[in-house]
Structure formats: structure tokens, C-alpha cells
Specification:
homodimer, three-stranded antiparallel sheet, extended, mainly alpha, DNA-binding, 3 strands
Chain lengths: 128, 128
DNA sequence: TTACAATATTACTATATCGTTAATTAGTTG
DNA sequence: CAACTAATTAACGATATAGTAATATTGTAA
């Protein structure tokens, strides 16, 4: 019942057996679900706390249909869960591993850009 | 100089300031680079050790042009690095955070599917 | 130099995805 | 019941992406 899993290396980095194509498609689909700025914007808001589609409309200025579709994609992936209450549908983060996932990616990008930046440090032009 | 960074929560999960759209686009692009089964297949092979485009052709049976293009996408993201030696170009994993990234996703998917599976356990049909 | 080999790139088609508008479904209230 | 509201779904056009075949680039060697 706990959300804590025993820490074991899983699939892609295992040295023994590579994932077959079918499994890779599933992993890729998960990455693709995270690979859209609009969805990340919604996720970012839902990381604070659960929100209705309406609230997300107000907070982002995006159309209701568009938001609903993006939320469905995330919910289909099990990343979000829906809770219906009267006319409203409240979405919330169901898969908390996305927090670490986002941190990991942001950390990697941060390091990447800081390396690039160093090449330009103390340089005001190509001829300096 | 070490690849170890100080462990601090970075962007998306920070409670203080949300990432602006421009930054979310960059994060999304990183996820999208991982969001293709063909690229994951190549990554999986490169996780063993560095390989030339040729080797990857032989191991996967995919066309040279296709492989080259996918490797470029990963290299542009800083996920892979290229090393030129004579006529050959060797690719290798440059951003080791993808190991954790893949483990995290595989772990989440594993948990997700095991939950779904439990609904069917000990059930041989809808009428049992 | 010419011939050749490994990669990269271009041009193209097919498919997937995003966002919009309109229609539909589901739930509430008078 | 009809009228209203929130959300989903469908249909569409625009853009992005994957894969292929052909061409270009880069480096080697005769």
C-alpha cells in the first residue's frame, strides 16, 4: 500500500537483458506524455494541489477543450487521477515519481547549460 | 569537475517559483528526445559501451540514415557525445542521468502495471 | 588525382500531435 | 421537464516527427 518500492535497478540500465521493442514503446510513450510544455505547465500547477479543469483554465488562460485533452493524456498514463464531484472534475498527481523525474531532468539541464555558459564567461565577443 | 552535483531540489517541484513557459519548452524537448522507441533502443545499446554508427546498424538492422539522425537528436541534447576516429564516429552516453531517468520511468511503469494486473488476478473471466 | 567507405544531410511521404471550434455527454437546478 | 454548467469528444487544419532514398560531406588509400 505504501508508495515506497524496494530500490532495485529495473530495466533499461540492467546489464543482463535489454528491453524488447514492445516495452521500449511503452517507456517512450511515458516520456512523450511528459514531452509537452503545456502538459508540464498543467503538471506544475497540479503539483501544488488538486485542481478542477475550470481552475486550470483560469490560471493558464488556455482553452477548456485543450486543457481537458492534455489532462486526459496524463491521466491515461496514470500520471494524474481524476475525482468527480458534481459538475466538476478534479485532477491531481497520482504518480509521485514525476517529481523526481522532473528534478532529474532539470538538474541535468542545469548542469548542461552551466557548462555551456562557462565557454562564454569573461568573453565579450569572438575577438576578445 | 566531478559529475556529482550537490543534491538540491531544482525547478518543477520547487514550491516557490514555477518555471516560465520558455524553460518548460526546454524541459519538454528533453523528455521528447527520450520519447521515441528507436532512440531508446540505441541508448540501450550505448549504455553497454560506445559504438560506431556502423555497429549500431548491424545490431539493430535499422538504416544508416535513420540511426544517424536519431543519434544527432540525442547528441544535440547533450545526452550523447561523438568521437570521430578516421572514417568512424563513435557515440557514447554523455549525460549519465539518463540511467536514473530510465530506471525511474521503468519503476513507475512496473508499479503501474502490477497494480492493474492485480485486478485480473485469480479471475479467469468476467463471470467468474 | 581518383576511387572508396562511413556519416551526415536533403528531399520527400506518411503519420502523429497540437490547438481550435462545434457538438456531445453528464450533472445540477428551477 | 427545460435551462444551465462543466467537462469530454469529434472534426478539422497546421505543424512536427519518423523513416526512406538519394545526395553530399569527410576522411582514407591507391
Amino acid at each position: 500500500m505504501g508508495s515506497q518500492m524496494p530500490k532495485k535497478n529495473t530495466q533499461l540500465t540492467e546489464t543482463t537483458k535489454p528491453l524488447p521493442r514492445e516495452a521500449l514503446e511503452i517507456v517512450a510513450a511515458r516520456f512523450r506524455a511528459m514531452g509537452d510544455a503545456t502538459r508540464l505547465e498543467l503538471l506544475q500547477l497540479l503539483m501544488e494541489d488538486e485542481k478542477s479543469v475550470q481552475e486550470l483554465c483560469g490560471l493558464t488562460g488556455m482553452s477548456q477543450a485543450n486543457i481537458s485533452k492534455h489532462l486526459s493524456i496524463l491521466a491515461d498514463q496514470g500520471i494524474l487521477s481524476r475525482r468527480k464531484q458534481g459538475l466538476f472534475v478534479f485532477y491531481s498527481v497520482a504518480d509521485t515519481s514525476i517529481y523526481q523525474l522532473c528534478d532529474l531532468v532539470c538538474g541535468a539541464l542545469s548542469e548542461r547549460f552551466s557548462k555551456v555558459q562557462k565557454h562564454f564567461e569573461h568573453k565579450t565577443s569572438l575577438t576578445s
